[in-house]
């Protein structure tokens, strides 16, 4: 699950990490009120969408020369102006796709006098089974180019979660960022706080870009501040963090995926035209592979889970059919815990209820498979039965071609 920048900063602040002060705003009035609560004279108004690249983004409704989704404002009036231009409009960035994302929330925050921008991210490194801390002196809006063109400027430091964060990890991060003196010490402390926050909140990713070094104040003191952050959480651990779960913004998510999660279905929309309903993630992956092997593409990944009920199967059918791209459905279910005849009942009831309008191929295997096939045959519905995975994929691809 992803959250907005302002929410991530709230969470980081709770873990003792230094962030500039700021307030979220859902309307122009709120943005003005937010600015009035800040000291000024420099404010930054930031579009809150679940995508990065906002600074260099473009608004669909504004002309091409208009500024992007991160705007410096030198007065409360300028904050108002920026809020008016951004709210309700659609921001297109390198991460949103061409359709962009509508800006419904803003974050009005203190303008910071930046001396240097760094990059620091924590993520779960599946290859090593450890937490990777990725650091670079080349922070800011072009980190993707740095990764491509000069990968040697990015350092990865892995922390074994069984051992935990050690002082040497902190020193390695500060060294990678080429920091010295007091900033080096600040960085070591920050790295530890971020690691602790990452583990404590069951994060999947915590990216800070940029982490900034401020220009020295009158006493010559500079500070490390988190200026932008992206955070995502392990969905399977969210039950441990009801406060974080509340931060979910469903308007940022695919509506079909939101509906699927209400029924506890694992659904991810893809680009193809063959809808898949499968039980078990491994079988779902194999089904998608074999569809591709037969020259077509899956429209989705959908795992109805081990104990699929009639209600779940119906909900799954409805979700698949809401996708206009779907031209055929392949059901591939292994009746282990669930018996095939019960699944067949569910499929027939669901197909009748949703008024199935595209070809449906069903492959059942496992307990009571004969009974299940009989139910499908006697249903009076144009369901094509398949014997194995290969047969099922061939049949659905052929059916879809024929219908086209
Ligand atoms: P995105 O990564 O989505 O483009 P950022 O929050 O990183 O958005 O903002 C882009 C750039 O805007 C930053 O690299 C930084 O230079 C500048 N910026 C962002 N927030 C502030 C701030 N509070 N004060 C000064 N400059 C900022
Ligand atoms: Mg950024």
From TrEMBL:
<dbReference type="GO" id="GO:0005524">
    <property type="term" value="F:ATP binding"/>
</dbReference>
<feature type="binding site">
    <location>
        <position position="112"/>
    </location>
    <ligand>
        <name>ATP</name>
    </ligand>
</feature>
<feature type="domain" description="ATP-grasp">
    <location>
        <begin position="9"/>
        <end position="269"/>
    </location>
</feature>
<comment type="pathway">
    <text>One-carbon metabolism; formaldehyde assimilation via serine pathway.</text>
</comment>
<keyword id="KW-0067">ATP-binding</keyword>
<keyword id="KW-0460">Magnesium</keyword>
<keyword id="KW-0436">Ligase</keyword>
<dbReference type="Pfam" id="PF08442">
    <property type="entry name" value="ATP-grasp_2"/>
</dbReference>
<dbReference type="GO" id="GO:0050074">
    <property type="term" value="F:malate-CoA ligase activity"/>
</dbReference>
<comment type="similarity">
    <text>Belongs to the succinate/malate CoA ligase beta subunit family.</text>
</comment>
<dbReference type="InterPro" id="IPR013650">
    <property type="entry name" value="ATP-grasp_succ-CoA_synth-type"/>
</dbReference>
<feature type="binding site">
    <location>
        <begin position="53"/>
        <end position="55"/>
    </location>
    <ligand>
        <name>ATP</name>
    </ligand>
</feature>
<feature type="binding site">
    <location>
        <position position="209"/>
    </location>
    <ligand>
        <name>Mg(2+)</name>
    </ligand>
</feature>
<dbReference type="InterPro" id="IPR017866">
    <property type="entry name" value="Succ-CoA_synthase_bsu_CS"/>
</dbReference>
<comment type="function">
    <text>Succinyl-CoA synthetase functions in the citric acid cycle (TCA), coupling the hydrolysis of succinyl-CoA to the synthesis of either ATP or GTP and thus represents the only step of substrate-level phosphorylation in the TCA. The beta subunit provides nucleotide specificity of the enzyme and binds the substrate succinate, while the binding sites for coenzyme A and phosphate are found in the alpha subunit.</text>
</comment>
<feature type="binding site">
    <location>
        <position position="279"/>
    </location>
    <ligand>
        <name>substrate</name>
    </ligand>
</feature>
<feature type="binding site">
    <location>
        <position position="117"/>
    </location>
    <ligand>
        <name>ATP</name>
    </ligand>
</feature>
<dbReference type="InterPro" id="IPR013815">
    <property type="entry name" value="ATP_grasp_subdomain_1"/>
</dbReference>
<feature type="binding site">
    <location>
        <begin position="336"/>
        <end position="338"/>
    </location>
    <ligand>
        <name>substrate</name>
    </ligand>
</feature>
<comment type="subunit">
    <text>Heterotetramer of two alpha and two beta subunits.</text>
</comment>
<dbReference type="GO" id="GO:0004775">
    <property type="term" value="F:succinate-CoA ligase (ADP-forming) activity"/>
</dbReference>
<protein>
    <recommendedName>
        <fullName>Succinate--CoA ligase [ADP-forming] subunit beta</fullName>
        <ecNumber>6.2.1.5</ecNumber>
    </recommendedName>
</protein>
<dbReference type="GO" id="GO:0000287">
    <property type="term" value="F:magnesium ion binding"/>
</dbReference>
<keyword id="KW-0479">Metal-binding</keyword>
<dbReference type="GO" id="GO:0006104">
    <property type="term" value="P:succinyl-CoA metabolic process"/>
</dbReference>
<dbReference type="InterPro" id="IPR016102">
    <property type="entry name" value="Succinyl-CoA_synth-like"/>
</dbReference>
<feature type="binding site">
    <location>
        <position position="228"/>
    </location>
    <ligand>
        <name>Mg(2+)</name>
    </ligand>
</feature>
<keyword id="KW-0816">Tricarboxylic acid cycle</keyword>
<keyword id="KW-0547">Nucleotide-binding</keyword>
<dbReference type="InterPro" id="IPR005809">
    <property type="entry name" value="Succ_CoA_ligase-like_bsu"/>
</dbReference>
<dbReference type="GO" id="GO:0005829">
    <property type="term" value="C:cytosol"/>
</dbReference>
<dbReference type="InterPro" id="IPR005811">
    <property type="entry name" value="SUCC_ACL_C"/>
</dbReference>
<dbReference type="GO" id="GO:0006099">
    <property type="term" value="P:tricarboxylic acid cycle"/>
</dbReference>
<feature type="binding site">
    <location>
        <position position="46"/>
    </location>
    <ligand>
        <name>ATP</name>
    </ligand>
</feature>
<dbReference type="InterPro" id="IPR011761">
    <property type="entry name" value="ATP-grasp"/>
</dbReference>
<dbReference type="GO" id="GO:0042709">
    <property type="term" value="C:succinate-CoA ligase complex"/>
</dbReference>
<dbReference type="Pfam" id="PF00549">
    <property type="entry name" value="Ligase_CoA"/>
</dbReference>
<comment type="pathway">
    <text>Carbohydrate metabolism; tricarboxylic acid cycle; succinate from succinyl-CoA (ligase route): step 1/1.</text>
</comment>
């Amino acid at each position: 699950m992803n959250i907005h920048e302002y929410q991530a900063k709230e969470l980081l602040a709770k873990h003792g990490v230094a962030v500039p002060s700021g307030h979220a705003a859902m309307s122009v009035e709120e943005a003005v009120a937010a600015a009035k609560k800040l000291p000024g004279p420099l404010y930054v108004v930031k579009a809150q969408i679940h995508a990065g690249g906002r600074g260099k983004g473009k608004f669909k409704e504004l002309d091409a020369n208009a500024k992007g989704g991160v705007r410096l404002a030198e007065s409360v009036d300028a904050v108002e102006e920026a809020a008016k231009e951004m709210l309700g409009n659609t921001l297109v960035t390198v991460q949103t796709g061409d359709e962009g994302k509508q800006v419904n929330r803003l974050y009005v925050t203190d303008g910071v006098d930046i001396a240097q921008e760094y990059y620091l991210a924590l993520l779960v490194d599946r290859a090593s089974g450890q937490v990777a801390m990725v650091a670079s002196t080349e922070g800011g809006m072009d980190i993707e180019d740095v990764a491509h063109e000069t990968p040697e400027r990015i350092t990865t430091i892995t922390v074994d979660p069984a051992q935990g964060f050690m002082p040497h990890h902190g020193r390695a991060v500060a060294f990678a960022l080429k920091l010295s003196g007091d900033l080096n010490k600040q960085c070591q402390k920050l790295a530890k706080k971020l690691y602790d926050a990452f583990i404590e909140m069951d994060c999947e990713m915590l990216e800070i870009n940029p982490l900034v070094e401020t220009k020295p104040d009158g006493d010559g003191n500079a500070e490390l501040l988190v200026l932008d952050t992206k955070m995502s959480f392990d969905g399977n651990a969210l039950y441990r963090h009801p406060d974080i779960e509340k931060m979910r913004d469903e308007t940022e998510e695919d509506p079909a995926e939101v509906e699927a999660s209400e029924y506890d279905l694992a659904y991810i929309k893809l680009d193809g035209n063959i809808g898949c309903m499968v039980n078990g993630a491994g079988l779902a992956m194999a089904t998608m592979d074999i569809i591709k092997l037969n020259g077509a593409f899956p429209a989705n990944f959908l795992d109805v889970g081990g104990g699929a009920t009639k209600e779940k199967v119906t909900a799954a059918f409805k979700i698949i059919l809401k996708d206009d791209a779907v031209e055929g459905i392949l059901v591939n279910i292994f009746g282990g815990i669930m018996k095939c005849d019960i699944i067949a009942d569910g499929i027939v009831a669901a197909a009748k209820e949703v008024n199935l309008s595209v070809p449906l191929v069903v492959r059942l295997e496992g307990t009571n498979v004969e009974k299940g096939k009989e139910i499908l045959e006697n249903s009076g519905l144009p369901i094509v039965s398949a014997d194995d995975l290969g047969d099922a994929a061939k049949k659905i691809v052929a059916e879809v071609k024929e219908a086209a």
